[in-house]
Design brief:
The structure is a single chain. This protein has eight helices and four strands, in the order E-H-E-H-E-H-H-H-E-H-H-H. The chain is an alpha/beta fold. The chain has a single domain, classed as Rossmann fold (3-Layer(aba) Sandwich). Strand 1, helix 1 and strand 2 form a beta-alpha-beta unit. The chain is globular.
């Protein structure tokens, strides 16, 4: 069964083109939920959005590593609205349905390539312990994509 798009979650690393896209969603009456920097960018462009923390009732933590990894987000992506037990669980736990997911992943390969291209000695550019690489391994984005793919 198809559902109209009433609510979208936008969480993007590469923000190019996101303002006109989000504006079109807003003009179409779609409620927007967003994460950290994306939410700030949208609000700065006068596009209303709810921060993910408002949905989860938890602030981003651990330097942004944990923001969307929460039942209120994944329940909204995974719930099947044709199943009464799913919709009842959403109602019971105040989980909003998420109809559209807009996400792109952290640029892990680009960061890795950039560090390798900038060096001829085999060392990573100022990142001998791989911290930059580790911080560009996306966990929440792929988890949301997989959850949304089930619907």
């Amino acid at each position: 069964m198809k559902h109209p798009i009433k609510r979208a979650l936008i969480s993007v690393s590469d923000k190019e083109g996101i303002i006109p896209f989000a504006l079109a969603l807003h003009k179409a009456g779609v409620e927007i939920i967003s994460t950290g920097g994306t939410a700030q960018l949208l609000k700065g462009a006068d596009i209303p959005c709810r921060d993910v923390a408002e949905i989860t009732q938890w602030a981003e933590m651990m330097d942004g590593r944990v923001k969307t990894l929460h039942p209120a987000i994944h329940g909204g992506l995974l719930a099947r609205r044709d199943k009464p037990d799913h919709t009842q669980a959403m109602d019971t736990h105040n989980i909003p349905a998420i109809d559209l997911l807009v996400v792109n992943l952290y640029p892990f390969e680009a960061v890795l390539d950039q560090n390798l291209d900038n060096n001829t000695d085999g060392e990573t550019d100022g990142d001998t312990d791989g911290e930059t690489h580790i911080e560009n391994i996306d966990i929440g984005g792929p988890a949301m994509i997989r959850g949304a793919a089930k619907n």
